[in-house]
Amino acid sequence: MNQDKIIVELKKENDDDVLEFQFKNKVNINFIKSENNDIKEVFKKILEELTKNVFYLELKINEDYDVELYKEVATTYIDELNNEIDQLINSEEWNEIFK
Known about the structure:
Blueprint: E1 4-13, E2 16-21, E3 27-30, H1 36-52, E4 55-61, H2 68-89, H3 92-98
Parallel strand pairs: 1-4
Antiparallel strand pairs: 1-2, 2-3
């Protein structure tokens, strides 16, 4: 199946470590200041977008980003989200509703 990709950029923004999900309307998770609502907003946006078009997330680490711990966390997080997306779009329930 041909899938689009959504870029997720790990970067510094005003001295904060941020994962920016580059949907049409960008959504950020700030590693230091994020609250549950930020994470809920990302999940909500992923589900909304999946109902329109199948995609996967591609992590882009800003070339001057140097916090190794967050690089590892972001890589694992995006890998896990992609696994969840794959399981969801290949589930019987999803296929009954959206195909």
